[in-house]
Structures are given as structure tokens and as C-alpha cells.
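The pair is listed for reference:
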Amino acid sequence: MRLPRSILAVTLAFTIAGCSNIGLRHLEAPGDGPDEFSVMPVKPLTQPKDYDFLPAPTPGGANLTDPNPKADAIVALGGSEAALNPNTAIPSSDAALVTASSRYGVPANTRQVIETEDAEFRRKQGRLTRLRLFKVDRYEQVYRREALDAAAQNEAARRAGLETPSAPPANE
């Protein structure tokens, strides 16, 4: 009589453990150490050309050595930091691009709409993703039909006569 009870208890424990909802990706920190991705290095200190003409300090303002990843990325990609200023007008060279990209309008709640549509998609596709006996990454399983095959897309573009960059063989 003890064996069926123990089997029932183990089955019940697995069932309860499998009902937790930790999302599609099971990510855990490997230890109790600091999060190395939250540390942003500062820019190196430099000497001013003339100590007589230093800018006035601005309490609560930005320092020259403070990191600004958005501005750094824009400059690294060939842009200018003036593009970060919301009061800056769109350059005439980019006006046609802005007009073409916004010709159908941009709804203000795009992120919320996509979030609700994705939650509904995951609910339909991943009915059994909450049942887990082991720690498994279910993201690929749920989105398998949504993923593109890069090699197939590259080959289709080549057949259509489009120039494509060289790509590694599909089996690598």
C-alpha cells in the first residue's frame, strides 16, 4: 500500500512543480556575484587645453566623462550627436526617408498591441509549456514556425536575381 502512495506523492509533486510560469526562457545567474552587464565604463579623463576657460559646473548635469551609450552609438554609426536633440529639425537630406517610412502613420500604442498579440500567440502555441519536469528553454519550440531559414531565404533571393552577400554553407 505504501508504493502506490509514494508514486501518487511523486506524481503530485511533479505536477505542482510543472505548473510554475517562469516564461519561455529559463535564465539564471550562474552565481551570487555582481551583474557585469550593469557596469558602464566611463570615458577616459583628458586635460583641457586651457585651464582659464573651463565650463561652469552644472549641479545635477552631465559630466564630460559620463557614458552616453545612445550618443556613442549614433556617432559610431556615422551620425551626429545633434540628432539626439528633439528640437533639432530633420535635415533636408533625410526628409524623403522620414516621409516614406511614416506614410501609413505610426500608431502610438504599437508596443502594447504587439505585446498583447504575442501573449495571445504564445497562449495558443505553448499550451503545454508550463508543464516542466526539467529546466528547459521553450522559446525555440514555441516560435519554431515563425522563424526564417536564413539559407532558404538567401537562396530565394539569389533565384530572384538579387545580389546577396556571401554566406557560410547551410550545414555549418
Remarks:
- Helices lie at 2-18, 69-76, 92-101, 110-125, 139-142, 150-159.
- The mean pLDDT is 76.
- The chain has six helices and no strands.
- The CA atoms of residues 29 and 35 lie 9 Å apart.
